[in-house]
């Protein structure tokens, strides 16, 4: 955790979720409430097909809804893409950019990720910019170099603590059930904090740094308790309301 920073527990549903899954969003919306929601923010990023209905389900809940990607342009001939403005028009408030699965599946570069984050800012969205090293990069001792390069090239110069969240997701920990040790997470997050503070000053010191990769109810308390970890980006365990809420509620003990 970082003093005076409101943590964010975010779910990334990836390419999962039919209309029937809206029940899970309803349950999460009901479970996210004061006093915890005053201290810890909760967010679900369903597939774009469910975005508009999902936000309609959350009008009476502090649960935020976001998207998983946006195009770098505001509109135009880009078949299959959605713009940041369209997300905002559906009452989404966040967008994930640069997830490793998009970097791999769609050959997204740091340069493109930065342009997408800039498009998110223009639309008034908060961008969750994802970074993280591969297993090979880690094995060969390059993890911090990769983090440094991705932070410097993917995060726009105009980033602020309000407009930007960084998600550190070591690729080898995504969907594998394997997580780094707390000491490794602490080291990576301390490094990111120093890099961001050097570049953005106070904004960088307050920017939320999420950890992502095999977060589940059983390890949430330990991982969320690490210094400079200001929340989680959760894949698989965010699909079930009970698991997502159990992770969210790990903060009850951490903030007590
Ligand atoms: O990629 C992730 C979130 O963006 C993490 O996925 P898992 O929680 O399923 O490992």
Question: Can you walk me through this structure?
Answer:
The protein is of the alpha/beta class and 256 residues long. The chain has one domain (8-255): TIM Barrel (Alpha-Beta Barrel), CATH 3.20.20. Helices cover 43% and strands 15% of the residues. The chain contains 13 helices and 8 strands. Strands 1-2-3-4-5-6-7-8 form an 8-stranded parallel β-barrel, surrounded by 6 helices. Strand 7, helix 11 (217-224) and strand 8 form a beta-alpha-beta unit. The two termini are 13 Å apart. The model has no long low-confidence stretch (mean pLDDT 98). Bound molecules: 1,3-dihydroxyacetonephosphate. 1,3-dihydroxyacetonephosphate binds at residues 12, 99, 169, 174-175, 212-215, 233-237.
In short, what is this structure?
By secondary structure, this protein is α/β, with parallel strands linked by helices. The protein is 43% helix and 15% strand.
Keywords, please?
single chain, 256 residues, alpha/beta, TIM Barrel, eight-stranded parallel β-barrel, 43% helix, binds 1,3-dihydroxyacetonephosphate
Secondary structure elements and their pairing?
Layout: E1 8-12, H1 22-31, H2 36-39, E2 41-45, H3 51-57, E3 64-67, H4 84-89, E4 94-97, H5 100-105, H6 110-122, E5 126-131, H7 135-139, H8 143-154, E6 164-168, H9 182-200, H10 202-206, E7 208-212, H11 217-224, E8 231-234, H12 241-248, H13 250-255
Parallel strand pairs: 1-2, 1-8, 2-3, 3-4, 4-5, 5-6, 6-7, 7-8
The chain binds 1,3-dihydroxyacetonephosphate (13P).
């Amino acid at each position: 955790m970082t003093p005076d920073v409101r943590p964010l527990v975010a779910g990334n549903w990836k390419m999962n979720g039919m209309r029937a899954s809206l029940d899970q969003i309803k349950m999460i919306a009901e479970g996210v409430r004061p006093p915890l929601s005053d201290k810890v923010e909760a967010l679900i990023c369903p597939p774009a097909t469910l975005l508009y209905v999902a936000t309609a389900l959350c009008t009476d809940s502090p649960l935020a809804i976001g998207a998983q990607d946006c195009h770098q342009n505001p509109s135009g001939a880009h078949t299959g893409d959605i713009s940041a403005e369209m997300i905002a028009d559906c009452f989404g408030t966040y967008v994930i950019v640069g997830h490793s699965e998009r970097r791999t599946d769609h050959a997204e570069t740091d340069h493109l990720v930065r342009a997408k984050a800039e498009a998110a800012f223009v639309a008034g969205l908060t961008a969750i910019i994802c970074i993280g090293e591969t297993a090979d990069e880690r094995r060969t001792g390059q993890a911090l170099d990769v983090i440094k390069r991705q932070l410097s090239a993917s995060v726009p110069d105009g980033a602020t603590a309000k407009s930007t969240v960084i998600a550190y997701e070591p690729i080898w920990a995504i969907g594998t059930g394997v997580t780094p040790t707390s000491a490794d997470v602490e080291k990576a997050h301390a490094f990111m904090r120093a890099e961001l503070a050097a570049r953005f000053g106070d904004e960088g010191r307050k920017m939320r740094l999420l950890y992502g990769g095999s977060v589940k109810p059983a390890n949430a308390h330990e991982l969320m308790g690490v210094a400079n970890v200001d929340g989680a980006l959760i894949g698989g365990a965010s699909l079930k309301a009970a698991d997502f809420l159990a992770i969210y509620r790990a903060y009850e003990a951490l903030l007590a």
